[in-house]
Amino acid sequence: MDIRSEIQRIVQPVAIGEVSTFEIVRKRDTGHAHMVDVRVTDWGTDASAGLRFSVVAVDHESDNTATGNSAETLEQVLATLHWWDLDKDLDERVAAR
After folding, report:
1. Number of domains in the chain
2. Residues paired with residue 65 on neighbouring β-strands, in sequence order
3. Are 51 and 69 in contact (CB under 8 A)?
4. Distance (Å, whole) CA 32 – CA 44
5. Could you tell me if residue 7 is inside a domain?
6. Is residue 1 part of a domain?
7. Side by side, which strands form the sheet with 18-27?
8. Local confidence pLDDT in tens for the 97 residues of the chain
9. Is residue 10 part of a domain?
10. What is the CA radius of gyration of the chain?
């Protein structure tokens, strides 16, 4: 069964994005390692120019979220994602432990 085709046939959406989720261990400048969920959405080759990929990252400890602009390539999105947003306020809490 092709899930995308079934969704298209039954729901008839305007667009369908395929989502892949990854867990990574990210190291801050302070040396503290933390788990982060990275959710990548691929809107496919039919996406509007420059909007194919989008990414959201969520820190396990703080629930801080990092996003950025959508882009034509995954490399562009990951390179410009606001990773520093994951570190807001958490570095102070870790240092206080």
Report:
1. 1
2. 58
3. no
4. 36
5. no
6. no
7. 18-27, 33-42, 53-59, 65-66
8. 788 889 989 999 888 899 999 999 998 878 889 999 999 999 988 888 889 999 999 999 899 999 999 999 999 999 999 999 998 876 555 555 5
9. no
10. 17
